[in-house]
Inverse folding.
C-alpha cells in the first residue's frame, strides 16, 4: 500500500476575485470510516503559517499576530485561527467552491513504499535518512467507526543496541469520535503523538489552557495540554533515500 509523500503534496486555493493564490504543504491526513454505512472520507491538515498583509510594504505581519491552520476535505474546510489569548481563537467552516473558485488537493504517493516490520528495520531506515511515514489506526467500536491517521516523521528517536525507536511528531489531526459538530471536518483536534510500540499511541491535544499568576487562573492560551493514551495499530513505512 502506497503512503503519502507529504514533502511533495499540497493544497492550493484559487480565489473568486482572481486575487491571491495560496499553495500550502500538507502536514497530515486522516481517513474516517463508517463501517455501518460503508463510507469513508479523507481530510488533510495544512502546514501552519502566520497572519499577514498581502503584497504591501512593511509591516507584513498583522499584530497582534495569530497562527493560521486549516483542515480540508474534498467538499469543505475548517479554518483554525489560534491567537495569543484563547478567548480570541476561532474556527470557521465553509465550502470549498463557495469560498474559493477552486481548491486543489494534490496528494502524491511516496515511491517504492516499504513497510518496516520491526525496530531493527526502523533504526536502519532512519539512519539511512530514508523518508518515513506512519499510519495509526484507531477505533470507535460503539459506533462502528474507524480512523486511519497518516503523517510524516519529523522527529524519530532511536537506539542501535538493542534496537529501539520512539516516535515524537506532529502536528496531526486526531478525530473526536464523540463530537457533535455538524460537519465531519470540524470533528478534529490538533495533536502531537509519541509511541515506542506498535499497539498504542499517546496523543497530546491542543486545547485552551488556563494560566496561573500565583493567585489563581487569570487568562488562557491555546497549547498542547490534554493527554490521551489510546489503543492503536501503528505501521511505519519508508521510501527510497
Amino acid at each position: 500500500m502506497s503512503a503519502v509523500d507529504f514533502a511533495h503534496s499540497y493544497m492550493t486555493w484559487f480565489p473568486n476575485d482572481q486575487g491571491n493564490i495560496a499553495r500550502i504543504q500538507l502536514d497530515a491526513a486522516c481517513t474516517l470510516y463508517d463501517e455501518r454505512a460503508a463510507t469513508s472520507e479523507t481530510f488533510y491538515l495544512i502546514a501552519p503559517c502566520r497572519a499577514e498583509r498581502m503584497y504591501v510594504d512593511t509591516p507584513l505581519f498583522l499584530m497582534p499576530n495569530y497562527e493560521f491552520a486549516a483542515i480540508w476535505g474534498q467538499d469543505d474546510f475548517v479554518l483554525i485561527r489560534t491567537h495569543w489569548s484563547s478567548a480570541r481563537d476561532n474556527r470557521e467552516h465553509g465550502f470549498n467552491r463557495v469560498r474559493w473558485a477552486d481548491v486543489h488537493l494534490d496528494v502524491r504517493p511516496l515511491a517504492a513504499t516499504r513497510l518496516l516490520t520491526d525496530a531493527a528495520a526502523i533504526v536502519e531506515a532512519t539512519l539511512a535518512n530514508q523518508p518515513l511515514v506512519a499510519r495509526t489506526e484507531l477505533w470507535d467500536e460503539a459506533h462502528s467507526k474507524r480512523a486511519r491517521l497518516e503523517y510524516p516523521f519529523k522527529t524519530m528517536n532511536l537506539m542501535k543496541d538493542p534496537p529501539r525507536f520512539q516516535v515524537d511528531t506532529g502536528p496531526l489531526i486526531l478525530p473526536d469520535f464523540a463530537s457533535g459538530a455538524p460537519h465531519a471536518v470540524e470533528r478534529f483536534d490538533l495533536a502531537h503523538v509519541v509511541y515506542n510500540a506498535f499497539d498504542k499511541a499517546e496523543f497530546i491535544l491542543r486545547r485552551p489552557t488556563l494560566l496561573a499568576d500565583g493567585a489563581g487562573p487569570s487568562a488562557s492560551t491555546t497549547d498542547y495540554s490534554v493527554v490521551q493514551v489510546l489503543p492503536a495499530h501503528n505501521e511505519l513505512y519508508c521510501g527510497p533515500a
Observations:
- The mean pLDDT is 95.
- The chain has two helices and 17 strands.
- The chain has two domains: 6-106, 114-238.
